[in-house]
Structures are given as C-alpha cells and as structure tokens.
Automatic annotation (TrEMBL):
The keyword Transmembrane helix applies. Keywords: Membrane, Transmembrane, Transmembrane helix. The lineage of its organism: Bacteria, Bacillati, Actinomycetota, Actinomycetes, Propionibacteriales. It comes from Nocardioides luteus. This is Membrane protein. Coiled coil: none annotated.
C-alpha cells in the first residue's frame, strides 16, 4: 500500500491559526477573572468555590458536545474548528460580553433589569454569533447548510455556558449573604447547579442555534436578499429568546422563570431537537440523490454510494479497512468517504441551482481526491477499488 496523498481541500490553515491565537490570548485574562471572582472572599483566598464551580460546570459539557457530534456524523466538521468553537464561546465571547457590559454599567449606568433582560442577550448573542459570521465570510466552504450552522452554534454555546456557569456556581458558593467567609452555602450552590446545569444546560446552545440556522440558510439560498436577511433574523430570534428567558427571572418574584421554562424553553428545545434530527435524517436523502446524479456523470462509482451515505455501512467499511490495512487503511477510507461526502453536498447545491463561486475548482479537487485515494482502499466485499 503506497503513501496516502495529502488532502488538497484542507490546506488553508489561516483561520485555525488566527482564531486559535485569539482563543489563547483571551483565555488567560478570562480565566484570571473567573478564578479571582470565585476564589477571593473578604480579601482572602478561598479556592473551594472556584474548584467546585469548574468541576460541576463541566458535568453537562460532555453530553452536550456528544449530542452535537452525533448530529454532525454525516459530514463531520474538522475537529479543530469544533474545538475552536468551544474555545471561542468559553473565552472570546465571554471576554467581549464582559467588556461591553462593564463599560455599559460604568458609562451608561444601565440598571440591573436592563442589563439582564436587554444588554446581556444583545451582547452575548452578538459575541457568540460572531464566530459563525467569521466562518461564513472566511471559511464559507465548510458550511453546507442549516445543520452545520446548528452544530457550530451549539459548540460556541456550550463553551459560553461552561464559563458562565463557573461564575454563577463559584459566586453562589462564596457570595452567600451573611457568610462571606468561603465556607460555602451548599444549599444555594445545589439549587444553581440543578437549575443551570441539569434543567437548562441547553439554554445558550439553543439561543445561538437560531443564529446558526440563519447562517445555514444564507449559505444555501439562491436569493440575495435572504443571504443578508437570514443571519439577522436568526440573531434577532436568539436575542429575543435569550431576553425572554433572562427577563422571566424578574417577574412574579422569580416565579416567571418557571413559567418561561415550561411555556418557552421546553417547547423551543424540543422543537429544535426535532428539527435538528429531521435535518440529520434528510442528509442521507440529499447525499443519495446527489451522488446518484454524480455517478451518472461518471464522477464516482455508483456501487460506492452505499458505503458513503449509510452510516452503518460506512462504519463497517472503516472496520474492514482497519483489519486489512491498519491505521493507513483507515486513514485512506476516511479520506475517501469524506471527499465523496463533500462532493455530494457540493453537487447538491449545483443541482439546486446555487453553486458557490468556486464550485468548479472545488468539484475538481474532490473528484481528484477520490481518484487518488481509491487505489488505497477496499470494501467489505473484498474488492479493491482500483479506479
């Protein structure tokens, strides 16, 4: 088995480097603020709140990330960019929101209700949504539609919620009225943990998902006005739901929170889940139709389609490659399947009449990639693909 050719479609690393540097630079001051605000009580060090805040804020992160990775199985996004989405939410978005909100309090003297119900939703959703906007402008070719927008938005939202939960949990533990000595109030801490990490860990990913949907629509629509309007409408929906959620805590002595949870959050969350799962299932239909047409044009063997669009058969092919070709065989199989998937989505946009400006160049790159990798893979039927 010869050396596997490099993937020409993943040569642009500028975005990853620039955003990665920004994440690292903002992580230090944000972590410093978070740890200091949750570790210092009455001018003395009490790190228990910070430690508990980090540990308990991390609990919902793993299942939420796994859920978005599950949604992303048909056409997996680069793990480095998904990680950057988490980092953006946890550090860059938090830093931007803190700066704007702090300046507003100092200069505009916003009241606490205004800060909670209006300023926080506007600034936080803008800070989180900026990652999606940068993706749309800088690495548009990575976005194939609404589902990609939801996945990236979810990662940013999970990262933001993680850092915010540390602040709330650590602050609650150390800032109990009448205590203030760092001994902690486990009752209030437990209540905050249950409400934020168990009952509503999906809040920030849900809000930002609306922006992600708008970005996804902008990618696939053929209408110029909708390309501009869809992200704005998505952002407006994110701000509105976030504002209603935050503002509900100001109503009926806090009881409005429960009302909003039952009437707004749960239905919105269930609807978003149903929509996302439906979109995920429709991916197979889209890829099958697109690649079938591509096969009729001689771009890919028709017999290969099942090993690409069926997730179970796709995994069987990778296991077979691992058994017969080792790590190199698995790498080749993954690259072949990924190139075929990318070709499928690109060809689908061509069939819908809204191919991207670089459609021809990208299409040739994917077809060339398929031709280069095929000699290095074999399917469970035992037939080596030799082109």
């Amino acid at each position: 088995m010869g050396a596997i050719p490099k993937d020409p479609t993943r040569s642009n690393r500028t975005f990853t480097i620039v955003v990665g540097v920004l994440v690292v630079l903002t992580s230090l001051p944000v972590l410093g603020i978070v740890l200091l605000s949750t570790s210092v009580v009455d001018d003395h060090l009490a790190p228990t709140g910070a430690i508990l805040g980090v540990l308990f804020a991390a609990i919902p992160v793993v299942p939420l990330v796994y859920a978005f990775l599950w949604l992303d199985r048909y056409e997996p996004e680069p793990k480095s960019l998904l990680a950057l989405g988490l980092g953006w939410g946890a550090f860059i978005a938090v830093a931007a929101a803190l700066i704007v909100q702090s300046l507003g309090v100092l200069l505009a003297e916003w009241s606490q209700p205004t800060q909670l119900a209006i300023v926080a939703p506007v600034t936080e959703e803008a800070a989180k949504g900026l990652f999606l906007l940068v993706l749309l402008v800088w690495r548009r070719h990575l976005l194939d539609g609404v589902l990609d927008g939801i996945v990236y938005a979810g990662m940013v939202g999970v990262g933001f919620a993680f850092t915010e939960n540390i602040l709330y949990l650590g602050g609650t533990y150390n800032g109990t009225p009448g205590v203030g000595d760092g001994s902690g109030n486990l009752g209030d801490f437990t209540l905050v943990f249950v409400m934020r990490c168990l009952f509503s860990p999906f809040a920030h990913p849900l809000f930002t998902a609306f922006t992600g949907i708008g970005i996804g629509v902008a990618v696939v629509t053929r209408k110029r006005w909708l390309q501009f309007l869809a992200p704005l409408l998505g952002y407006a929906a994110a701000v509105l739901t976030h504002g209603i959620w935050n503002g509900s805590t100001l109503l009926f002595d806090g009881a409005g929170f429960l009302l909003a949870y039952v009437v707004l959050m749960v239905p919105a969350f269930v609807s978003m889940v149903i929509f996302a799962v439906w979109r995920r299932k429709s991916e197979r239909v889209v890829l099958t139709r697109s690649l079938t047409d591509a096969a009729q044009r001689g771009l890919i063997p028709y017999t290969d389609i099942g090993w690409v669009v069926d997730l179970r058969r796709r995994e069987q092919a990778r296991k077979f490659a691992a058994t017969h070709g080792g790590a190199q065989g698995v790498a080749a199989m993954r690259q072949y399947q990924q190139a075929a998937i990318e070709l499928g989505y690109l060809h689908w946009r061509y069939l819908r009449g809204n191919p991207p400006p670089d459609f021809a160049a990208r299409g040739r790159a994917y077809v060339d990639r398929i031709s280069e990798v095929r000699p290095h893979i074999a399917f469970p039927s035992g037939q080596v693909m030799t082109g």
